[in-house]
Amino acid sequence: MKPAVEVDRLTKRFGSFTAVDGLSLTIDPGTIFGFLGANGAGKSTTIRMLCGLLRPSSGTARVAGFDVDQEAHRLKQVIGYMSQKFSLYPDLTVAENLEFFGRVYGLDKRRLESSLNRLKKNTGLEGREKILTSDLPTGWRQRLALSCALLHDPEIIFLDEPTGGVDPLARRQFWELIYEQAGQGKTVFVTTHYLDEAEYCHELRIIHAGKIIAGGSPGEIKKKYFPENLLELTCSSPLEIYDWLKSLPEVKQVSLFGLRLHLLVEPGEVGALRRKLIQFGLGDFDLRTIVPSLEDVFIRRLEEEAGERRK
């Protein structure tokens, strides 16, 4: 089975600024692939190159077998693209937007009608055809934008920050739609800065400053980057002991999570740490081993990257 997406050392420069720096990855068909990173990390630039909307400065990429630089004109029929801004016409109705995008994709009347009936039912837009797009709540505009991207039944769907600005319920419902598409054998490439959303992906890459800094399934990433014990410390004064904890030889890393502290501790050193906390006179505290989250991974890798830059 050929990969849905193949990327080799893909790079994009804007003058002296490198937005995407030598990315390489492979995505199998039917995969929900997540690109996790903060705003400005290079996620949207990567998607625009993979959709043939932006020429790479160097490196290569193939999507559905087509070279994104040399065969960009052929990509339109095999990919669906949903941008951050939901590229919809606000002064058109739901039905008019759907029909317009169907015509852009070159669908004849019979195929367009069939696609419209299927998508309106699947996305819940049935009965809302005459509503102006500008009058739709953000969650429904999101569904409409996805429907427009799926009209031509593409093999690969690119979703750039698709849940930005929508409420948690709409986000969860949208992910149900994504899983439906993957269940039909489609490949979904989704960018996000929501750490909880990244857990839904089959495969994940964390990107920072244009470079991939972690990769694998969410479970694999956690195991790979946390071979030590990850402990959570709950106490009444986390800020007061933050610097002291960082000075202890047993503690490799300290991160503040709200009113709790997450500590990386070498195996076999937990008992010694607990004794020092008691000697410190911390008062009541709770120290327990926890399973690392993607947020833990994200923070650790950013701190490691910052440390490398300082060196």
Protein described:
A hairpin with a 2-residue loop joins strand 1 (5-14) and strand 2. The strands form three sheets. The protein has a six-stranded mixed sheet, with helices on both faces. Strands 2-1-4-5 form a four-stranded antiparallel sheet. It folds into two domains: 5-222, P-loop containing nucleotide triphosphate hydrolases (Rossmann fold, 3-Layer(aba) Sandwich), CATH 3.40.50.300; 227-291, Alpha-Beta Plaits, CATH 3.30.70. It contains eleven helices and 14 strands. Helix 3 (94-104) packs parallel to helix 5 and helix 4 (109-123) packs antiparallel against helix 5 (138-150). Helix content is 37%, strand content 27%. By secondary structure, it is α/β, with parallel strands linked by helices. The protein has helices at residues 43-50, 72-75, 94-104, 109-123, 138-150, 168-183, 195-198, 218-225, 238-246, 270-280, 294-310; strands at residues 5-14, 17-27, 32-36, 58-63, 66-67, 79-82, 156-160, 187-192, 203-208, 211-216, 229-234, 251-257, 260-265, 286-289.
